[in-house]
Specification:
- With about 140 residues, the protein is mainly alpha-helical.
- It has one domain (about 1-120).
- About 75% of the residues lie in helices and about 5% in strands.
- It has helices at about 1-70, 75-90, 105-120, and strands at about 125-130, 135.
- The protein has a two-stranded antiparallel sheet.
- Helix 1 runs antiparallel to helix 2 (about 75-90) and helix 2 (about 75-90) runs antiparallel to helix 3 (about 105-120).
- The longest helix has about 70 residues, at about 1-70.
- Pfam families: Yae1_N.
């Protein structure tokens, strides 16, 4: 009887270890799946916000470029040069590469250039990204 009791205890301990291992594996798989889904959702939202922000800068710069393209005075030339610089930075931005490691740094440079362009154009800049939509106020 003592051997049967020992075998039964071994069976209980082994079952507990097996259930622990299986539970861990199931939990790990579920956590990985949830993490990937949340990461994808966050990435999509963050990417959309960046795209919206840069899109506003692009629309702003192209509009002002059109308004000033016929002006030939020196002040207008300086404004056009600043706009061209902003447009060049926007064109070089790596939209297709989500692993680009200097994306935030480049985005900050574009924001800084936008503020500089607004200053050259004598426009008060205040760009905010809201939860639903972006707004430029002058």
């Amino acid at each position: 009887a003592p051997r049967a009791m020992a075998d039964m205890l071994d069976g209980i301990v082994m079952a507990e270890q097996r259930f622990h291992r299986e539970g861990y594996q199931e939990g790990y798989a579920e956590g990985s799946h949830t993490g990937i889904a949340e990461g994808r959702r966050y990435g999509s939202l963050h990417g959309a916000r960046i795209g919206s922000e840069i899109g506003c800068y692009l629309g702003f710069a192209l509009t002002w470029h059109c308004l000033l393209h016929k002006c030939t005075d020196e002040k207008s030339s300086k404004k056009i040069k600043a706009l061209d610089s902003l447009l060049g930075m926007i064109k070089k931005f790596p939209y297709e590469d989500p692993t680009y490691d200097r994306m935030q740094e480049d985005l900050e440079k574009i924001r800084g250039k936008f503020k500089q362009v607004c200053s050259v154009l004598h426009i008060q800049s205040d760009f905010r990204i809201g939860t639903g939509r972006s707004s430029l106020t002058f």
